[in-house]
Automatic annotation (TrEMBL):
<keyword id="KW-0560">Oxidoreductase</keyword>
<dbReference type="InterPro" id="IPR036188">
    <property type="entry name" value="FAD/NAD-bd_sf"/>
</dbReference>
<dbReference type="GO" id="GO:0004497">
    <property type="term" value="F:monooxygenase activity"/>
</dbReference>
<dbReference type="Pfam" id="PF13738">
    <property type="entry name" value="Pyr_redox_3"/>
</dbReference>
<dbReference type="GO" id="GO:0050660">
    <property type="term" value="F:flavin adenine dinucleotide binding"/>
</dbReference>
<protein>
    <submittedName>
        <fullName>NAD(P)-binding domain-containing protein</fullName>
    </submittedName>
</protein>
<dbReference type="InterPro" id="IPR050982">
    <property type="entry name" value="Auxin_biosynth/cation_transpt"/>
</dbReference>
């Protein structure tokens, strides 16, 4: 069995930011990723997707993004940036490596098993898969007629593969609104909303909203602080590209309240109306799946990861890229390098103590 100091699971922005710091420290590690290429988790997302943050706030530590700093990179540009980042710092990414289980032996080492790689014994594991893995699908989805094409947002692509007829987008977060706008020129679109969303202007006094959040420190307000808790409750996103519901309605998108269920092939809404869709896109959000970590005390009673700024109570286990891990920036590219630095600092101190 091969022995490593650290295994990093996931070669997205969080895994690569962590990997660069581990490489700088001279540790023996590997980064496992299920994709064929670094950045594939971004390449497969829907057409037209851009990052929330401008390029100036979308680079990882040690390598800024090229291009107009105030512009927004699209998914393919960012995927290529991640691939270039891994190449520049010669990070040991192993592709097509699917981790199936993480256990612990009697000596306290983590045993990482799966397909596409030999089983590894590691002193530490960094989970960098993020919390946006499994799309949330309502319980009534199973009642949809078999001929209705239903899929999560990441499988929408450009929508050209969908059958003709009305498209129902369930969920009006940023992805749901983007997909509704993308699909509208070619078909009838119905957008089912959820909880009220707070949209902020993209620019204030000529400056990006993210510039203001950065210089005021709001984006880095600790999660458990008064400012952090207030931001988390509202969790606004920029109204970039005129994505207010009134703007969407003006483009011919039918805005409906929460979808409540299916009856006779019709999806019903909270106002009593209904529609018969030809296709449905789930844009409600995502949930984490930590079932591969077969170690006690990782999750609390609600199946939520136990951690303090990404440091698990299970010694040697770490998380990077969780939303609100340390602050609002944690779930964005702009925050993962700082979070990775906290994790790697703790990991190195533990490593040195164990090898004195």
């Amino acid at each position: 069995m091969k022995r490593l100091d650290v295994v990093v699971i996931g070669a997205g922005q969080a895994g690569l930011a962590t990997g660069r710091l581990l490489a700088d420290a001279g540790l023996d590690f590997a980064i496992f990723d299920a994709g064929d290429r670094t950045g594939d988790s971004w390449r497969r997302r829907y057409e037209g997707l851009t990052l929330f943050t401008p390029r100036v706030y979308s680079g990882l530590g040690g390598m800024a993004m090229a291009g107009e700093p105030t512009g927004y990179p699209d998914k393919d540009e960012f995927a290529d940036y991640l691939e270039a980042y891994a190449a520049r710092f010669r990070l040991p990414v192993e592709h097509r490596a699917v981790v199936a289980s993480i256990t612990r032996d009697s000596g306290g080492r983590f045993i990482v098993s799966g397909s596409g790689f030999d089983t590894i014994a590691a002193d530490a594991v960094v989970m960098a898969t993020g919390a946006f893995r499994d799309p949330i699908v309502p319980s009534w989805a199973a009642a949809l007629p078999s001929e209705v094409a239903a899929m999560p947002a990441e499988e929408f692509g450009d929508g050209s593969h969908l059958p003709p007829g009305p498209l129902l987008v369930v969920g009006d977060g940023a992805s749901g609104r983007d997909i509704a706008v993308l699909a509208r020129p070619k078909r009838e679109v119905v957008l089912a909303t959820g909880r009220p969303r707070r949209l902020l202007p993209e620019r204030l006094l000529g400056k990006s909203l993210w510039w203001w959040l950065d210089v005021t420190g709001l984006v880095r307000a600790p999660t458990r602080s008064l400012r952090g808790r207030a931001m988390r409750r509202s969790d606004p996103f920029p109204n970039r590209g005129r994505r207010a519901l009134s703007d969407l309605a003006a483009e011919g998108i039918r805005i409906k309240p929460r979808a409540t269920g299916v009856a006779a092939g019709m999806v019903g809404f909270a106002d009593g109306s209904a529609v018969r869709p030809a296709a449905v896109v789930w844009a409600i959000g995502y949930k984490a799946d930590w079932s591969l970590i077969e170690v006690e005390n990782v999750l609390d009673g609600n199946c939520v990861v136990r951690h303090d700024d990404g440091i698990s109570p299970v010694e040697g286990l770490y998380f990077v890229g969780l939303p609100w891990q340390r602050n609002r920036a944690s779930g964005l590219v702009m925050g993962v390098s700082a979070d990775a630095a906290v994790i790697v600092d703790h990991l190195l101190r533990r490593h040195l103590a164990r090898h004195r």
